From TrEMBL:
Enzyme type, top EC level: oxidoreductase
SUPFAM superfamilies: LDH C-terminal domain-like (SSF56327), NAD(P)-binding Rossmann-fold domains (SSF51735)
Binding-site positions, NAD(+): 33-39, 59, 120, 143-145, 256
Keyword Oxidoreductase annotated: yes
Domain Lactate/malate dehydrogenase N-terminal residue range list: 28-171
A Pfam family reported for this protein in Swiss-Prot or TrEMBL: Ldh_1_N
Domain Lactate/malate dehydrogenase C-terminal: 173-340
Active site residues according to the UniProt entry: 203
Protein name per its UniProtKB record: Malate dehydrogenase
Organism for this UniProt entry: Meira miltonrushii
Coiled coil feature spans: none
Binding site for substrate: 107, 113, 145, 179
Alphabetically ordered keywords of this record: NAD, Oxidoreductase, Tricarboxylic acid cycle
MF annotations from Gene Ontology: L-malate dehydrogenase (NAD+) activity
Length: 346
């Protein structure tokens, strides 16, 4: 079945009729970094997701305020805020089924995502340590950049704690799929929901590899040469477009919150037993392991226990092969940086 990322969220009152109340299993979602640019709109979108029954909002600042605000929305999810005082992080994580992490600093113009490594690596490591202790079986969704490195960091922390399950750790790359759908559908003159582009590799610059040849009827609307190259560049550097437009005030937050809510909703549906749920995600992967890319984003089938199947990228064009070849060495470097950093900074 097709990737779902480009489809609008099935949320709110209309969509809740799709589920009988007895089919809704209790699901507890924790957001770490909930008061930030991504965290606040993400918390709101999760509050609006009928599959979320409990919402735990943690941040080093303001989370009780954000939770008080969001909690007044008249949807079922019981919403609570937690501060670092009095073991707030542990309390927020106890009983969590899904943990979404957008904690960390965003880029300013002129920075790469890797420039965030020094600050965000330790934030993600410390949150992962507590999660490994308190909620080792929860699904971990990592948004904090640089995703190519922060996901391997979480894996190493979990391995060290003896609780690592590769099927439950995801780097959220849904925003790349969302952007590819938006940009290509604009060119093709089709509805975004009809244009689904798998995006594989990683989540930064040249590691982002859009497979425009696999976008169905929209594929043929892009002419080879300059138009194709511009579109690929826009998908690979869509984040920079937002960083530049925000002019020092941060990076994508609203589109990211949307993308993370879409991915979380897909995972919730899969965990609740829906079959055929497929999303692109950055996961520990056998696909390009022999080239050092031990983590790789590709379409994955999601099920009750998380990643059920990692799908190979399928037939690609010569141009896409070149993009992949440029992505792999950079990805390998980013992964090794995360792994060796944890070894040196346990
Ligand atoms: P922001 O600065 O607006 O928010 C970050 C939040 O994290 C703040 O509220 C801050 O208090 C909180 N925080 C910091 N340290 C924390 C800790 N130890 N525990 C809990 N919370 C903590 O930033 P933002 O715009 O929301 O971006 C957050 C991260 O997401 C950045 O690293 C950014 O690069 C990344 N990002 C990723 C994607 C993606 O596609 N994966 C997209 C956009 C942004
Ligand atoms: C994005 O793709 O928008 C995010 O990774 C944020 C950034 O730094 O560009």
């Amino acid at each position: 079945s097709a990737l779902r990322s480009a489809a609008p969220l099935r949320q709110g009152f209309a969509s809740s009729r799709l589920f009988s109340s007895s089919s809704i299993v209790n699901k507890n979602v924790a957001v770490l970094g909930a008061s930030g640019g991504i965290g606040q709109p993400l918390s709101l979108l999760l509050k609006n997701d009928p599959l979320v029954t409990e919402l735990r909002l943690f941040d080093v600042r303001l989370a009780p305020g954000v939770a008080a605000d969001v909690s007044h929305v008249n949807t079922p999810a019981i919403t609570t805020g937690f501060s670092p005082e009095n073991d707030g992080l542990k309390k927020a994580l106890t009983g969590a089924d899904i943990i979404v992490i957008p904690a960390g600093v965003p880029r300013k113009p002129g920075m790469t995502r890797d420039d965030l490594f020094n600050t965000n690596a330790s934030i993600v490591r410390d949150l992962a340590k507590t999660a490994a202790e308190v909620a080792p079986k929860a699904h971990m969704l990592i948004i904090s950049n640089p995703v190519n490195s922060t996901v391997p960091i979480v894996a190493e922390v979990y391995k060290k704690a003896g609780v690592y399950d590769a099927k439950r750790l995801y780097g959220v790359t849904t925003l790349d799929v969302t952007r590819a759908s938006t940009f290509l559908s604009g060119i093709a003159g089709l509805k975004p929901s009809e244009v689904i582009v798998p995006v594989v590799g990683g989540h930064s610059g040249v590691t982002i590899v859009p497979l425009l040849s696999q976008a169905g009827s929209a594929s043929s609307s892009v002419s080879a040469g300059e138009q194709y190259e511009k579109l690929v560049h826009r998908i690979q550097f869509g984040g920079d477009e937002v960083v530049k437009a925000k002019d020092g005030a941060g990076s994508a937050t609203l589109s990211m919150a949307y993308a993370a809510a879409v991915f979380t909703n897909s995972l919730l549906r899969a965990v609740n037993g829906e079959s055929g749920v497929k999303e692109c995600a950055y996961v520990e992967s056998p696909l390009y392991k022999d080239q050092g890319a031990t983590f790789f984003a590709s379409p994955v089938s999601l099920g009750k226990n998380g990643v059920e199947d990692i799908h190979p990228i399928g037939n690609i064009t010569g141009e896409e092969q070149k993009l992949l070849e440029a992505a792999l060495p950079e990805l390998k470097k980013n992964i090794e940086k995360g792994v060796s950093w944890v070894a040196e900074n346990p």
